[in-house]
Amino acid sequence: MSPPTPRLCRALPVLTAALAVLLYGLAPPAAADDGPADWTARPAGTGTGRDARPYVYLEGTPGTVLQDRLAVTNSGPAPLTVRLRGDGRAGGWIRFAEDTVTVPARTRADVPLALTVPPDAVPGDASGEAVAVGGSEEIRVPVRVRTVGPTLAALTVEDVEVSGGTIRYALVNRGNAMLRPRLAVRAEGVFGTLLDRPERPLSLELAPGRRVERTEPWPDAPALDAVTVRLRVTASGGVRDEAEASATYLPVGPVAGGGLLLLGGLAVFASGAYRRRRRTGRAAPHPPPVEARPPVATEPLLKAGAKT
Description:
Layout: H1 6-26, E1 39-43, E2 56-60, E3 65-74, E4 80-87, H2 88-91, E5 94-96, E6 100-103, E7 107-116, E8 124-134, E9 137-147, E10 155-163, E11 166-173, E12 182-189, E13 192-201, E14 211-217, E15 225-235, E16 239-249, H3 252-282
Parallel strand pairs: 2-9
Antiparallel strand pairs: 1-3, 3-7, 4-6, 4-8, 5-7, 8-9, 10-11, 11-14, 12-13, 12-15, 15-16
Protein backbone atom coordinates (compact mmCIF):
# COMPACT_ATOMS: atom_id res chain seq x y z
CA MET A 1 0.00 0.00 0.00
CA SER A 2 1.49 3.32 -1.04
CA PRO A 3 1.86 6.12 1.59
CA PRO A 4 -0.68 8.99 1.42
CA THR A 5 0.29 11.91 -0.73
CA PRO A 6 1.04 15.31 0.88
CA ARG A 7 -2.20 16.73 -0.55
CA LEU A 8 -4.24 13.97 1.08
CA CYS A 9 -2.48 14.55 4.40
CA ARG A 10 -3.44 18.21 4.32
CA ALA A 11 -7.06 17.36 3.44
CA LEU A 12 -7.59 14.87 6.26
CA PRO A 13 -7.97 17.47 9.07
CA VAL A 14 -10.44 19.42 6.96
CA LEU A 15 -12.50 16.32 6.18
CA THR A 16 -12.47 15.30 9.84
CA ALA A 17 -13.72 18.73 10.96
CA ALA A 18 -16.45 18.72 8.31
CA LEU A 19 -17.57 15.27 9.37
CA ALA A 20 -17.74 16.37 13.01
CA VAL A 21 -19.85 19.40 12.09
CA LEU A 22 -22.17 17.20 10.05
CA LEU A 23 -22.61 14.68 12.87
CA TYR A 24 -23.27 17.48 15.38
CA GLY A 25 -25.97 18.90 13.16
CA LEU A 26 -27.66 15.51 12.76
CA ALA A 27 -27.58 14.69 16.46
CA PRO A 28 -30.82 15.48 18.43
CA PRO A 29 -30.64 18.50 20.69
CA ALA A 30 -29.62 17.70 24.23
CA ALA A 31 -32.38 17.74 26.80
CA ALA A 32 -32.54 20.79 28.98
CA ASP A 33 -30.87 20.39 32.33
CA ASP A 34 -33.57 19.90 34.96
CA GLY A 35 -31.24 20.81 37.76
CA PRO A 36 -32.33 22.23 41.10
CA ALA A 37 -34.31 25.46 41.10
CA ASP A 38 -32.51 28.65 42.03
CA TRP A 39 -34.69 29.00 45.13
CA THR A 40 -35.66 26.77 48.08
CA ALA A 41 -38.31 26.58 50.79
CA ARG A 42 -37.81 24.74 54.08
CA PRO A 43 -38.52 25.07 57.80
CA ALA A 44 -36.69 28.06 59.19
CA GLY A 45 -33.70 27.45 61.43
CA THR A 46 -29.98 27.83 61.72
CA GLY A 47 -29.18 24.23 60.83
CA THR A 48 -27.92 23.31 57.39
CA GLY A 49 -27.33 20.02 55.65
CA ARG A 50 -28.03 17.13 58.00
CA ASP A 51 -28.84 19.55 60.81
CA ALA A 52 -31.66 21.20 58.88
CA ARG A 53 -35.20 20.38 59.96
CA PRO A 54 -36.81 17.94 57.51
CA TYR A 55 -40.34 19.14 58.31
CA VAL A 56 -42.37 21.50 60.46
CA TYR A 57 -43.27 19.82 63.74
CA LEU A 58 -45.77 21.37 66.17
CA GLU A 59 -47.47 20.04 69.28
CA GLY A 60 -50.33 21.42 71.37
CA THR A 61 -53.73 20.92 72.90
CA PRO A 62 -57.04 21.49 71.04
CA GLY A 63 -57.81 25.17 70.50
CA THR A 64 -54.21 26.41 70.83
CA VAL A 65 -52.36 28.53 68.24
CA LEU A 66 -48.88 27.26 67.35
CA GLN A 67 -46.29 29.34 65.52
CA ASP A 68 -43.34 28.63 63.24
CA ARG A 69 -41.57 30.11 60.19
CA LEU A 70 -40.97 29.04 56.61
CA ALA A 71 -37.63 30.07 55.08
CA VAL A 72 -37.70 30.99 51.38
CA THR A 73 -34.21 31.48 49.88
CA ASN A 74 -33.76 33.13 46.46
CA SER A 75 -30.35 32.23 45.01
CA GLY A 76 -31.13 33.70 41.59
CA PRO A 77 -30.03 37.02 40.09
CA ALA A 78 -33.56 38.50 40.03
CA PRO A 79 -36.36 39.05 42.57
CA LEU A 80 -38.67 36.08 43.09
CA THR A 81 -42.39 36.14 43.91
CA VAL A 82 -43.65 33.10 45.84
CA ARG A 83 -47.25 32.16 46.69
CA LEU A 84 -47.82 30.26 49.93
CA ARG A 85 -50.68 27.99 51.03
CA GLY A 86 -51.41 24.93 53.14
CA ASP A 87 -52.51 21.52 51.89
CA GLY A 88 -53.80 18.39 53.60
CA ARG A 89 -55.45 18.02 56.99
CA ALA A 90 -52.82 19.81 59.09
CA GLY A 91 -52.02 22.13 56.19
CA GLY A 92 -55.59 23.42 56.31
CA TRP A 93 -54.93 24.68 59.84
CA ILE A 94 -52.08 26.96 58.64
CA ARG A 95 -52.30 30.71 58.02
CA PHE A 96 -49.25 32.61 56.70
CA ALA A 97 -48.43 36.19 57.65
CA GLU A 98 -48.42 36.88 53.89
CA ASP A 99 -49.83 34.63 51.21
CA THR A 100 -47.58 36.21 48.55
CA VAL A 101 -43.95 37.12 49.24
CA THR A 102 -41.40 38.79 46.96
CA VAL A 103 -37.84 37.79 47.85
CA PRO A 104 -34.97 39.94 46.48
CA ALA A 105 -32.10 38.32 44.59
CA ARG A 106 -29.67 36.28 46.71
CA THR A 107 -31.80 36.83 49.81
CA ARG A 108 -33.55 34.66 52.37
CA ALA A 109 -36.97 35.57 53.78
CA ASP A 110 -38.47 33.93 56.87
CA VAL A 111 -42.27 33.98 56.60
CA PRO A 112 -44.17 33.55 59.90
CA LEU A 113 -46.99 31.02 59.99
CA ALA A 114 -49.64 30.27 62.59
CA LEU A 115 -51.29 26.87 62.99
CA THR A 116 -54.54 26.71 64.97
CA VAL A 117 -55.43 23.30 66.37
CA PRO A 118 -59.24 22.95 66.07
CA PRO A 119 -61.08 22.90 69.41
CA ASP A 120 -62.67 19.57 68.49
CA ALA A 121 -59.45 17.94 67.31
CA VAL A 122 -58.96 14.46 68.77
CA PRO A 123 -55.65 13.54 70.38
CA GLY A 124 -53.20 12.02 67.94
CA ASP A 125 -51.13 12.91 64.91
CA ALA A 126 -52.14 14.87 61.83
CA SER A 127 -50.13 15.64 58.71
CA GLY A 128 -50.17 18.12 55.85
CA GLU A 129 -47.91 20.33 53.78
CA ALA A 130 -46.86 23.95 53.39
CA VAL A 131 -46.77 24.66 49.65
CA ALA A 132 -44.60 27.36 48.04
CA VAL A 133 -45.09 28.15 44.33
CA GLY A 134 -42.63 30.34 42.46
CA GLY A 135 -42.82 30.67 38.67
CA SER A 136 -43.25 27.14 37.33
CA GLU A 137 -41.67 25.50 40.37
CA GLU A 138 -43.50 24.12 43.40
CA ILE A 139 -41.93 23.05 46.70
CA ARG A 140 -43.83 21.16 49.39
CA VAL A 141 -42.65 21.20 52.99
CA PRO A 142 -44.09 18.45 55.23
CA VAL A 143 -46.01 19.54 58.34
CA ARG A 144 -46.58 17.24 61.34
CA VAL A 145 -48.90 18.16 64.20
CA ARG A 146 -49.50 16.22 67.41
CA THR A 147 -52.64 17.02 69.35
CA VAL A 148 -52.13 16.37 73.06
CA GLY A 149 -54.96 15.13 75.29
CA PRO A 150 -56.59 12.05 76.83
CA THR A 151 -57.00 9.13 74.47
CA LEU A 152 -60.22 7.13 74.30
CA ALA A 153 -60.31 3.86 72.36
CA ALA A 154 -63.78 2.55 71.52
CA LEU A 155 -64.87 0.15 68.78
CA THR A 156 -68.25 -1.44 67.96
CA VAL A 157 -69.38 -4.15 65.54
CA GLU A 158 -72.89 -3.52 64.21
CA ASP A 159 -75.53 -4.57 61.66
CA VAL A 160 -74.52 -8.23 61.44
CA GLU A 161 -76.41 -10.11 58.71
CA VAL A 162 -76.09 -13.67 57.41
CA SER A 163 -77.15 -14.38 53.83
CA GLY A 164 -76.16 -17.55 52.01
CA GLY A 165 -72.39 -17.83 52.05
CA THR A 166 -71.74 -14.24 53.19
CA ILE A 167 -71.62 -12.59 56.60
CA ARG A 168 -72.04 -8.81 56.51
CA TYR A 169 -71.14 -6.42 59.32
CA ALA A 170 -70.00 -2.87 60.07
CA LEU A 171 -67.14 -1.58 62.24
CA VAL A 172 -67.37 1.86 63.86
CA ASN A 173 -64.56 3.71 65.66
CA ARG A 174 -66.37 5.61 68.42
CA GLY A 175 -63.23 6.87 70.15
CA ASN A 176 -60.52 9.39 69.33
CA ALA A 177 -57.61 7.00 68.70
CA MET A 178 -56.55 5.25 65.52
CA LEU A 179 -57.48 1.55 65.69
CA ARG A 180 -56.35 -1.61 63.92
CA PRO A 181 -59.16 -4.11 64.54
CA ARG A 182 -58.92 -7.86 64.96
CA LEU A 183 -61.84 -10.20 64.17
CA ALA A 184 -62.98 -13.64 65.36
CA VAL A 185 -65.99 -15.50 63.88
CA ARG A 186 -67.98 -18.39 65.32
CA ALA A 187 -71.19 -20.07 64.09
CA GLU A 188 -73.30 -22.54 66.07
CA GLY A 189 -75.94 -24.81 64.51
CA VAL A 190 -78.50 -27.21 65.88
CA PHE A 191 -75.98 -30.05 66.07
CA GLY A 192 -72.88 -28.09 67.13
CA THR A 193 -70.20 -25.71 65.88
CA LEU A 194 -70.19 -25.04 62.15
CA LEU A 195 -67.55 -22.30 61.94
CA ASP A 196 -64.73 -21.30 64.29
CA ARG A 197 -62.22 -18.76 62.95
CA PRO A 198 -59.70 -17.56 65.54
CA GLU A 199 -58.94 -13.91 66.02
CA ARG A 200 -56.90 -12.37 63.22
CA PRO A 201 -55.86 -8.79 62.27
CA LEU A 202 -57.84 -7.08 59.52
CA SER A 203 -56.12 -5.16 56.74
CA LEU A 204 -57.75 -2.00 57.97
CA GLU A 205 -56.79 1.15 59.88
CA LEU A 206 -59.89 2.74 61.37
CA ALA A 207 -59.69 6.49 61.99
CA PRO A 208 -61.73 8.15 64.77
CA GLY A 209 -65.39 8.43 63.84
CA ARG A 210 -65.02 6.25 60.76
CA ARG A 211 -67.54 3.52 59.82
CA VAL A 212 -66.61 0.70 57.46
CA GLU A 213 -68.93 -2.00 56.06
CA ARG A 214 -67.25 -5.35 55.44
CA THR A 215 -68.08 -8.93 54.46
CA GLU A 216 -66.81 -12.29 55.70
CA PRO A 217 -67.04 -15.20 53.23
CA TRP A 218 -68.57 -18.50 54.36
CA PRO A 219 -68.28 -20.80 51.34
CA ASP A 220 -69.23 -24.00 53.24
CA ALA A 221 -72.41 -22.66 54.84
CA PRO A 222 -74.93 -25.42 55.68
CA ALA A 223 -77.79 -26.40 53.39
CA LEU A 224 -80.23 -27.21 56.20
CA ASP A 225 -79.77 -25.76 59.68
CA ALA A 226 -80.67 -22.95 62.06
CA VAL A 227 -77.46 -21.07 62.91
CA THR A 228 -76.30 -18.24 65.15
CA VAL A 229 -73.23 -16.32 64.00
CA ARG A 230 -71.19 -14.36 66.56
CA LEU A 231 -68.55 -11.77 65.70
CA ARG A 232 -65.97 -10.53 68.20
CA VAL A 233 -63.73 -7.52 67.48
CA THR A 234 -60.78 -6.32 69.55
CA ALA A 235 -58.10 -3.63 69.29
CA SER A 236 -55.24 -2.26 71.36
CA GLY A 237 -56.11 -0.51 74.58
CA GLY A 238 -58.48 -3.23 75.79
CA VAL A 239 -61.11 -2.52 73.13
CA ARG A 240 -63.64 -5.35 72.70
CA ASP A 241 -67.17 -5.76 71.33
CA GLU A 242 -69.44 -8.60 70.18
CA ALA A 243 -72.56 -8.93 68.04
CA GLU A 244 -74.56 -11.82 66.61
CA ALA A 245 -77.20 -12.68 64.03
CA SER A 246 -79.36 -15.73 63.33
CA ALA A 247 -80.33 -17.36 60.06
CA THR A 248 -82.21 -20.46 58.87
CA TYR A 249 -80.89 -22.47 55.95
CA LEU A 250 -83.40 -24.56 53.96
CA PRO A 251 -82.72 -26.44 50.71
CA VAL A 252 -84.69 -24.84 47.89
CA GLY A 253 -85.68 -28.09 46.08
CA PRO A 254 -87.25 -30.04 48.99
CA VAL A 255 -88.98 -26.94 50.29
CA ALA A 256 -90.56 -26.26 46.91
CA GLY A 257 -91.64 -29.91 46.54
CA GLY A 258 -93.14 -29.98 50.02
CA GLY A 259 -95.02 -26.79 49.33
CA LEU A 260 -96.51 -28.24 46.15
CA LEU A 261 -97.60 -31.42 48.00
CA LEU A 262 -99.21 -29.34 50.71
CA LEU A 263 -101.08 -27.22 48.17
CA GLY A 264 -102.21 -30.34 46.34
CA GLY A 265 -103.53 -31.91 49.53
CA LEU A 266 -105.44 -28.79 50.39
CA ALA A 267 -106.94 -28.70 46.90
CA VAL A 268 -108.10 -32.35 47.14
CA PHE A 269 -109.61 -31.75 50.56
CA ALA A 270 -111.45 -28.64 49.37
CA SER A 271 -112.72 -30.42 46.27
CA GLY A 272 -114.10 -33.36 48.32
CA ALA A 273 -115.85 -31.03 50.74
CA TYR A 274 -117.40 -29.14 47.86
CA ARG A 275 -118.76 -32.34 46.26
CA ARG A 276 -120.26 -33.50 49.55
CA ARG A 277 -122.05 -30.20 49.94
CA ARG A 278 -123.49 -30.49 46.43
CA ARG A 279 -124.76 -34.03 47.01
CA THR A 280 -126.43 -32.93 50.22
CA GLY A 281 -128.14 -30.02 48.49
CA ARG A 282 -129.59 -32.26 45.71
CA ALA A 283 -131.23 -34.92 48.02
CA ALA A 284 -135.09 -35.39 47.85
CA PRO A 285 -136.96 -33.23 50.31
CA HIS A 286 -138.78 -34.87 53.22
CA PRO A 287 -142.66 -34.91 52.99
CA PRO A 288 -144.38 -32.37 55.11
CA PRO A 289 -145.73 -33.67 58.42
CA VAL A 290 -149.45 -34.86 58.43
CA GLU A 291 -151.69 -32.69 60.44
CA ALA A 292 -153.92 -34.38 63.00
CA ARG A 293 -157.66 -34.25 62.05
CA PRO A 294 -160.79 -35.13 64.16
CA PRO A 295 -162.42 -38.53 63.38
CA VAL A 296 -165.32 -38.56 60.87
CA ALA A 297 -168.50 -40.56 61.71
CA THR A 298 -169.41 -43.17 59.14
CA GLU A 299 -172.98 -43.85 60.44
CA PRO A 300 -175.78 -41.40 61.02
CA LEU A 301 -176.13 -40.33 64.56
CA LEU A 302 -179.20 -41.70 66.36
CA LYS A 303 -181.74 -39.20 67.18
CA ALA A 304 -182.69 -38.78 70.68
CA GLY A 305 -185.40 -41.17 71.80
CA ALA A 306 -185.10 -43.47 68.73
CA LYS A 307 -185.42 -47.12 69.24
CA THR A 308 -182.54 -49.29 68.75
